[in-house]
Amino acid sequence: MDSLHAAGIRLAEVLQAGPPWLEKFWISVTSLADPKCVFTVCFPLAYFLNRKVGVSVLWVGLLSEWLNVVLKWFLFGERPFWWVHESGLARKQLVMLRQFPVSCETGPGDPSGHCMITGAALWPLVTALTTLASRHSKSLVVKLSPFGAYILLLLAVGLSRIFVLAHFPHQVVGGILTGAALGWGLQGHTPATRSLGFFVATGLALLLSSLALHSLVIATGIDIDW
């Protein structure tokens, strides 16, 4: 794993050595793609355009948020900002890295929540836009443009997370693949006809189950808060 981590540090160095204007771009991307935006921006917009799509974005976002927390507890995953010092790499060789206000994230880092939750929650919206585009155009480019934008967005989010030293490349890739798989798998099982109370109850159940799981794992002697 050390070799994989070291390669990730090298990629972060390359990204940070880029043109100065890219710094603002990467930081803006990592801020705008915060998982909270799924619930405060993406869900309201999708719901306004189409109720079923909006509910699907909310449902997939809710479940992927919970699963990301659970996966991080079991996969652990170092954070580049901390690993470069804890591993001793910074003492062995010159490491040309800068930190940013969003660099100092604590807690396990695998998989990337930004990539996983955003990738999962946006899947229903992207498929809906693809269907809409197919109805109004026979051009393959137009039909595939929503998915093209989806891929480019996740790529930008992933690179931004590496740039700010929040994640290693393999954590970003894992987040993107897991998010896309979740979006694809959960979209067809959206409880679109359920009431608001159902979603509140589900959210509460997920919260309580995560707290119970946290306590159970701690009780077995595994320090998931390392």
Automatic annotation (TrEMBL):
Matching Gene3D superfamilies: Phosphatidic acid phosphatase type 2/haloperoxidase (1.20.144.10)
Record-level GO BP terms: gluconeogenesis; glucose 6-phosphate metabolic process
Enzyme class label: hydrolase
E.C. number: 3.1.3.9
InterPro entries documented for this protein: PAP2/HPO, PAP2/HPO_sf
Record family assignment: Belongs to the glucose-6-phosphatase family.
Protein name (Swiss-Prot/TrEMBL): Glucose-6-phosphatase 3
Species assigned in the record: Rostratula benghalensis (greater painted-snipe)
Encoding gene (name): G6pc3
